[in-house]
């Protein structure tokens, strides 16, 4: 009985490792294909964006979170529900700007970088840049234009991983021409 | 945690990426499949190491195959293989009637020609897993009716 229990948690852990390892294989491939880190970062962001625009639907279907009333609520949902659901971690939300339009997500641990070390010739690589694209894409689908970037990265020697998110504007839904 | 959906989305993006860069470089379909399979191979090697570090040693080849069909498949694809056949001479056919990576696509013949793209990575995954268990193999997959597919494993005697 207890052995089966072990199998259960091992199974879950292995699934997250599947994602982590696959992501690693992807970044490795991108580094081979593109000469410079900037290009790789851009590709990761683009792929993340494509994933994000689909992920948001999956997220809304699974969680029963309703519409967020302001950016603070959005930040909480991202940290406490979304990150927990998909990556099993709960980053903390801090460093709010005075205007309330910018905040930081602090990740104590980043599952994407398990088993990863950056070699010396890739100092400009933002390994987890996919996450920025995902957040940007997902929020765009709920009418929010945001700017997302990494402020700190454990892979580059910082103590924590920090993602900075800035609200740019609300996207108005375009009503097709001819409709009232 | 680390939801299946996340992996599926990433897998789809991976395929898009490989095929898009192929378009620009004028690679044929075969090279893309190989690329995807190689990526799967690396991932499979890593995965199986993590997964089996506390498992008992396997008695024989059939035991390894059963492990792949039950534990490995359950962990990666959330279900067991539905049918395992072998000729006892190094060829195994694994049948999955509802392969997770194909389940999101419409059934029937419409997207059959695209199915191999979605199987390449998984073939590599299996080949990589087997490789680190000491079994050298060639893994191919075929789909006759979505979402059912058959993985054929040919053991290479070293």
From TrEMBL, chain A:
Function as written in the Swiss-Prot or TrEMBL entry: May play a role in vesicular transport from endoplasmic reticulum to Golgi.
Domain of life: Eukaryota
Family per record: Belongs to the TRAPP small subunits family. BET3 subfamily.
Name of protein: Trafficking protein particle complex subunit
Upper classification of the organism: Eukaryota, Metazoa, Chordata, Craniata, Vertebrata
Organism: Acipenser oxyrinchus oxyrinchus
Pfam families: TRAPP (PF04051)
Keywords for this protein: Endoplasmic reticulum, ER-Golgi transport, Golgi apparatus, Lipoprotein, Palmitate, Transport
Cellular component per GO, a single term: Golgi apparatus
One of the GO biological process terms: Golgi vesicle transport
Record note on quaternary structure: Homodimer.
Keyword Chloroplast tagged: no
Gene: TRAPPC3
Keyword Membrane: no
Automatic annotation (TrEMBL), chain B:
Source species: Huso huso (Beluga)
Cleaved signal peptide residues: none
One Pfam family this sequence matches: TRAPP
Subcellular location: Golgi apparatus, cis-Golgi network
CDD domains to which the protein is assigned, alphabetical: TRAPPC6A_Trs33
Principal localisation: Golgi
Family per similarity comment: Belongs to the TRAPP small subunits family. BET3 subfamily.
Top-level lineage group: Eukaryota
Protein name listed in UniProt: Trafficking protein particle complex subunit 6B
């Amino acid at each position: 009985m207890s052995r089966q229990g072990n199998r259960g948690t091992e199974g879950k852990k292995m699934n997250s490792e599947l994602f982590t390892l696959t992501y690693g294989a992807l970044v490795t491939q991108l580094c081979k294909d593109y000469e410079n880190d900037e290009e790789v970062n851009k590709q990761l962001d683009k792929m993340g964006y494509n994933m994000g625009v689909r992920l948001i639907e999956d997220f809304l279907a699974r969680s029963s979170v309703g519409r967020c009333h302001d950016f603070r609520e959005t930040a909480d949902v991202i940290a406490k529900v979304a990150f927990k659901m998909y990556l099993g971690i709960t980053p903390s939300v801090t460093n709010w700007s005075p205007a309330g339009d910018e905040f930081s997500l602090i990740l104590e641990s980043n599952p994407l970088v398990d088993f990863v070390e950056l070699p010396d010739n890739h100092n400009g690589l933002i390994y987890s840049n996919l996450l920025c694209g995902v957040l940007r894409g997902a929020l765009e689908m709920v009418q929010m234009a945001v700017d997302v970037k990494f402020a700190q990265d454990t892979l580059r020697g910082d103590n924590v991983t920090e993602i900075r998110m800035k609200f740019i504007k609300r996207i108005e839904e375009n009503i097709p021409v001819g409709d009232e | 945690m680390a939801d299946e959906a996340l992996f599926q989305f990433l897998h789809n993006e991976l395929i898009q990426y490989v095929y898009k860069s192929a378009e620009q470089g004028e690679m044929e379909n075969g090279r893309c499949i190989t690329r995807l399979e190689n990526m799967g191979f690396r991932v499979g090697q890593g995965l199986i190491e993590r997964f089996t570090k506390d498992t008992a040693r396997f008695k024989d080849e059939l035991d390894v195959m059963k492990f792949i069909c039950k534990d490995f498949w359950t962990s990666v694809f959330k279900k067991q293989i539905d049918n395992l056949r072998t000729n006892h001479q190094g060829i195994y056919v694994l049948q999955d009637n509802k392969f997770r990576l194909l389940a999101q696509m419409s059934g029937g013949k419409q997207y059959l020609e695209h199915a191999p793209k979605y199987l390449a990575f998984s073939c590599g995954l299996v080949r990589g897993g087997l490789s680190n268990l000491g079994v050298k193999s060639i893994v191919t997959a075929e789909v006759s009716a979505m979402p059912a597919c058959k993985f054929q494993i040919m053991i290479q005697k070293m």
